[in-house]
Each structure stands twice: as C-alpha cells, then as structure tokens.
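Look over this today:
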Amino acid sequence: MEDKNQDPKSKPKKAISRRSFIRGAGLSTAGSVLLTTNALAFEYDEQVKAGDEFGPDAITIKMKVNGITKSLSVEPRTTLASALRDHLELTGTKVVCDRGSCSACTVYLDGKPVNSCMMSAFDVGDREITTIEGIAQNGELHAVQQAFIDHDASQCGYCTPGMIMSCAHLVDNHENPNLEDVKNATRGNLCRCGTYPNVFKATLAAANKTI
C-alpha cells in the first residue's frame, strides 16, 4: 500500500529499460531529422522558384553535337556522358570512374575539355559539344588519333578517347608544345595500363616533335 504522506523526493526512481531508452532515442532522432528535412526543403523550394522546374519525367532537349543539332528525351538526372552514350549512341566517350577523377569521358564544351560524367545534360544549353567521333575531318583522322595508332599509345583502350581529346586540344591550341606541355595537358587523365611514355611520343609526333 503506497503511503500518500511519503515525500515524493524520497520515492525510488523508476529504472529505464533498454526498450524505453531506444524508443526515446528514436523519437529524438526523428525529431531532429524532421527539423533538418524541413529546413532543406525550404531552401530547395527557394532555389527552384528562381528558375525553371524539370522532371521527374523525361523531357525533350536539343543539343549540338559534332556540328549537328539533335533532339533527345532525357530525365533531369541524366549526365552529359550518359546522354552521349545511351541516347545518341556516341559510345566513343568512355565512362570509367563516373566521378571526374580519370578523365576518360573527356569531351569539348565550346572547344574546352570537360569531364562529361560530371556535367548535367541540361547544363549544356546552346553550347557545342565535340566528342572523339567529331575531331576527324573529311574522313581523315586527327593527327593525334593517327599518331596514337602509329606509336601504339593504347592498351586496354578505356582511357584512350579521353587521352586523345586532351592531347588533341593541346596540339590544336599550342604552336610548339614540349614534353612538359604534354604531361601538363594529360595530368588529369588516368591510364591504369601505364602507356604514358607512348602517349607522350605520339602527341609530340603529332606536333612534329620528337623526345
């Protein structure tokens, strides 16, 4: 029988069970997540109001690739690399790391090398894309493409398109490249087979140079 006159402070404290602890911790965590989610949702809504909304379904966009304007239906999550490979069937552009660390997916955006796996297809807009398929002219291989063949500058071939794009950009935009220029131009291109020496030879040969 409980003594009603007993001092409340003198009552023994109720032990916390494992179940009640987990339940309490779960509610606290859920509350924190809810607050964080609401804050992020507010920020996202503010950003969306500033521009157009897309998705989640695919919509049709236009993209100028290798001098030809093409229409393709893509979802907002589509990368430029995926748009080229999966939608336009330009499979010369390779996807290896898919996180911008190997540069196998290098293409030109208005003449400048970019990693297409790190760029949204929606961000291309009116700018022109040039892929490995587009640097040959009038049925003739680019000088760097031919030099890669002549100097056996590829093994497995996965990095080769990106390497060629980086080296061709150097040769086309540098009047007198040297070995250090070639090394600098390909510093972001990863070759797991280790064909760098032949890549350097090929590039310098294409620029009428020798090591």
The longest strand covers residues 59-65. The CA atoms of residues 95 and 141 lie 23 Å apart. The helical segments are 18-49, 80-87, 143-150, 160-173, 179-185, 196-206.
